[in-house]
Amino acid sequence: MPMVQITNVRKSYAGGFEALKGASLDIHEGEILALLGPNGAGKTTLISTICGITQPTSGTITVGGHDVVTDYRGARSLVGLVPQEINLEPFERVINTVRFSRGLFGKPKDDALLERVLRQLSLWDKRDNRIMELSGGMKRRVLIAKALAHEPRVLFLDEPTAGVDVELRRDMWDIVAGLKEAGVTIILTTHYIEEAEAIADRIGVINEGEILLVEEKTALMTRLGQKELRIELHEPAMALPAALVERGLRIEEGGHVLVYTYDTAQDRTGIATLIREISDAGLVLRDLQTRQNSLEDIFVGLVSKQEDAA
Ligand SMILES: Nc1ncnc2c1ncn2[C@@H]1O[C@H](COP(=O)(O)OP(=O)(O)OP(=O)(O)O)[C@@H](O)[C@H]1O
After folding, report:
1. Domain named ABC transporter: which ranges (predicted)?
2. Strand, coil or helix: what is 149?
3. Could you tell me if the CB of 87 is within 6 A of ligand 1?
């Protein structure tokens, strides 16, 4: 069974705005899933419904088999949430903040566990400091420590690196990798494509309340390793000789452009032979272009296709 199962979830806010339009998604135990989407896509809404902060208008969500509405406590105890905003008491000491979070879940006192969590986040030396004495990066780590204090099996990080500097972003990535090693399932939302690329096992793209794609990062990256050669012709070609079709050459733009997709990782791309065969077929080249797919292209392509359809 998936660790988190989201089935056909819709969420309308008061006023009628539909922020989720039938989202379905399975999250597997132990994976890092990055949810990528522009502002207002519905990422925070999705996380909030999973964590039981808001209720879905329809559809079901289970965490570890517990329904987030009918068995809220069972589901919530398995979930840790690191919010986007820093919402800490400035005068409170780090250790007390984290202890308090654990207490909220009705868990027995366990200072050995809190020490492990704080050490993992390089906060142990700061345990007796007041929150106001910490840097912005340390405060973000405290948010993570709070979310881990009750030993959740699933951790949600809402935009963990929005507005942080490059160094802290890398630190966050290391922290997330460490948590995964410790067996925590991690879902993070991000605007940054390179963040999804750097740490996720799977990448989901969400826009306008719909999940447009969920795919293994490695599969996406294979697609990204492909390059396109676009060959502009002097005169449009109406048809291609069978040999060229067999090589995977396609006609586009009313015959003005021939397109060939090849794998950049391969030793032999076949381009030289292809060009020879094209001119043997009597076609005259006018211009050549190559273009590399990026995750950004795939993302922008998906989002604009959805806009066209609307
Ligand atoms: N409490 C609310 N009441 C009404 N509309 C809301 C509420 N919360 C969010 N929305 C709307 O729902 C949509 C999705 O918002 P959400 O915060 O889930 O997006 P997001 O993908 O997390 O965006 P961002 O990347 O900017 O954080 C937005 O259009 C937002 O204005």
Report:
1. 4-233
2. coil
3. no
Q: Is 91 exposed, middle or buried (0-12, 13-18, 19+ CB in 10 A)?
A: exposed
CA–centroid distance, 176 to ligand 1, in Å, is: 25
* CA–CA dist 273, 270 (Å, integer): 6
Say if residue 80 is in the same domain as residue 150.
yes
Predicted TM-score (pTM) of the model is 0.78
State which ligand 1 atom lies nearest to the alpha carbon of 37: 21
CA of 14 to the centre of ligand 1 (A): 12
Nearest CA, atom 28, ligand 1? 40
Amino acid (1-letter code) at residue 300: V
85 lines ligand 1 (CB under 6 A): no
- The answer to whether residue 124 sits within a structural domain is yes
Last residue of a domain, one of 181, 201, 221: 221
Q: For residue 260, what is the domain's CATH number? A: 3.30.70
Look-up: residue for tokens 């942080």? 164
The protein residue whose alpha carbon is closest to atom 12 in ligand 1 is 19
pLDDT tens digits, one per residue of 88-133: 999 999 999 999 999 999 899 999 999 999 998 889 999 999 999 9
207 lines ligand 1 (CB under 6 A): no
Q: Are residues 115 and 135 part of one domain?
A: yes
List the domain range (segments joined by +) for residue 258: 227-292
Q: Can you give the pLDDT at residue 224?
A: 67
Ligand 1 atom closest to residue 84's alpha carbon, by position in its atom list = 27
- Residue of minimum CA distance from atom 10 in ligand 1: 19
Q: What is the pLDDT of residues 264-301, one digit of tens each?
A: 777 778 888 889 999 998 999 999 998 876 667 777 77
